[in-house]
Amino acid sequence: MTSSVSRIARSVIRLAWPVLVAQLAVIASGVLDTVMAGRYSAVDLAAVGIGASVYFSVFIGLMGVVQALSPIAAQLFGGKQLERIGEETRQTVWLALGLGALGVLLLAFPEPFLRLSSAPPEVEVRTRAYLQGIAWALPAMLLFRVFFALTTAVSRPRAVMAINLVYFAAKIPLNALFIYGALGAPELGGPGCALATAIASWLIVALAWVYCAKHPFYAPFRIFGRWSWPHLPTLWIHLKLGVPIGLALFVEVTSFTFMALFLARLGAATSAGHQIASNVTAVLYMFGLAIGNATAVLTAQAIGAGNAREARHTGLTGIGIMFAISACAGVAIFFAAHQIVSLYTRDAAVQSIATQLMAYIAFFQLFDTSQVVIVNALRGYKIALIPMLVYTVALWGIGLGGGYALGLESIEAANALGLATPMGATGFWLAGVASLVVAAAILFAYFLRVSRRHENAVA
Questions:
Q1: pTM of the model
Q2: Is 32 exposed, middle or buried (0-12, 13-18, 19+ CB in 10 A)?
Q3: Cβ neighbours of residue 229 under 8 Å, at least 6 residues apart?
Q4: Consecutive 10-residue runs of the chain (459 residues): their mean pLDDT?
Q5: DSSP letter string over 215-243?
């Protein structure tokens, strides 16, 4: 048993670290936007924080539908049905194109999101300009996520890592050009981040699919071997799996992004402090996504190969690895809060707010990263509906609803318990911790049940 766990752990880490580097490159570009916009002005920092929250709410929900390709292709790869992978990929490209058009419309007309934020007028103007620019990045990023889902499903994550590093490298000069107006480019401030993101996104899409077309590893899939029009039965299978994944991701992300929109009512300093806290959490969440992606792929491949016992042990091993990493990270955050915040801003008011939030983040990320691995392990079994329902109740009901009450309302019962409400940003983060404890516990129990049932059925 010990040797089996050790072998699985090595496989998870081997697949996870390139995905981690790839995801950190994306997060680093977000941190880059935050730092560069923050040095331009506090208003631009707040606008980028709100705008990025809206963008990722839309993008992540749509991306989840595309991400259904990953467990589908991984199970086919485990079962050595290689040409079917090519057809599934072509159909996913059609989905990405349709979803991309929808996403552009949502971001180009962002009034519903902006009404939620009630941001000051000068911040709203900059946020609107940011969203109208970044709308054109969304179709490119969805097409790239098709490549991402395919490549990680067949255990080739290093290509994604290399391309995402190119993305980050391209963002540095592009941000300098369009935020500060370097070399005669227009000086756009915070919205310049959006234009830089759009250009860099289309660059990596071209790189990804040229690589896929030219590399001999992908030849057996015959992705470019024939033309396929949209096939409704295949698309329906993708949608049945992908829509719950997308909705779950949408609920998860909007529990964050709506928090940012609500906190915008408390001023630019609170928005900026929350943005810093969110960036720190997002960096650690990338570890969960990387371990979760590797766990999902290896679980799905084991199921495709008919090895239910291996699938169960893979899920448990991935969850254990992530919990250990997150526990160490939590201790580091708790004791180095001030030093971490100082890397982001020199504004004393923003530093004070962000430092207070770090204690909550130490616990928040422990359960956040663990639950995302559990959810990904379930996706390896092509299970997405139950996690979506759990997310809706826990993250929206307890996290966002409870956060709104604790953060923005005066509650007599809470005051009697020593919680002086409204608590501002700390109220949202406290409710967020509670929501993730509930979600992680329920989902872990469900994974144990599903994996055991599947193992007994095969036996």
A1: 0.82
A2: middle
A3: none
A4: 77 89 83 78 77 82 89 90 91 94 87 69 79 90 94 90 92 87 74 88 94 93 90 91 88 78 74 78 86 92 88 92 90 84 77 80 88 93 92 91 80 68 78 91 94 78
A5: -GGGGGGTTTSS-----HHHHHHHHHHHH
